Amino acid sequence: MNARTRNFYLVPYLLWIALFVIAPIVLIVYYSLFNVEGQFTFGNYAKFFTPVYMQMTLSSFWYAFLITAFSLLVAYPAAYLLTKTKHKQLWLLLIILPSWINLLLKAYAFLGLFGTYGFVNSVLELVGIGTQQILFTDFSFVFVSVYIFIPFMILPIFNSLEELNPSLIYAARDLGASPWTTFRRVVFPLTLSGVKSGCQAVFIPALSLFMITRLIAGNRVITLGTAIEQHFLVTQDWGMGATIAVFLIIAMAVIMLLTGSRKRGLQDDSKKKAV
């Protein structure tokens, strides 16, 4: 295939990137330069650095960190056990299957499960604990978010574990390494690329959650995604909403650079240390 043919096949891809990636970002930046009266201003950017929005930003990063951390704690053992099962592809499909269901439907399902007269409170009543306020709490928000994002954490970790050469584990055990040492010095370093990919797939969308904060957290959890929705749909201050979106895009780009850079080099270094 010559260079001209390759360039021809690149045209649809470049058009897609220009229309659905670059153009929306340019449009968001454009709107961020106007206030609610339609006047050109940089005041939106100055307003973003006020304590209210800084607190909102810290809250968004904190909840995104919690969701990512709990997803990783559940996903890594689950992915490891999947690699040891007989019908691993079937079990993996069953784990991924809920991600095909509409997010709104899953959120409403948890409204029924966690409600005052829902299944969870019925079980608590049965065991003598009594009815608890589960909905509209930080716990319910983090729990539902972890449930929704956990397939995106399991899949890259599972793929990394599947690609791991088992002879390295056997060699570590033959040399007297304990199971914990083998995991810490061999397994985890060699699957770090999958962990980083999973953290990307969870942390970045968790920064901009808004539907779950509305339905499950009852607006008790305020994130950047919630603020963007408020400014675009309620206050009609598109400029401020676009400004928050600009900083959110920048934060996502920085996270991708930090977790995705030198992936090959880090992976090679880990293999050398393991050997």
From TrEMBL:
Cellular component terms per the entry's GO annotation: plasma membrane
Topological category with respect to the lipid bilayer: Multi-pass membrane protein
Entry's Gene Ontology BP terms: transmembrane transport
A family per Pfam: BPD_transp_1
Major location category of this protein: membrane
Keywords from the UniProt entry: Cell membrane, Membrane, Transmembrane, Transmembrane helix, Transport
Subcellular location: Cell membrane
Membrane-spanning parts: 12-33, 61-83, 90-114, 134-158, 201-218, 238-258
Domain ABC transmembrane type-1 per the UniProt entry, residue ranges: 57-259
Sequence similarity: Belongs to the binding-protein-dependent transport system permease family. CysTW subfamily.
Protein name according to UniProt: Spermidine/putrescine ABC transporter permease
Protein's organism: Paenibacillus radicis (ex Gao et al. 2016)
High-level lineage: Bacteria, Bacillati, Bacillota, Bacilli, Bacillales
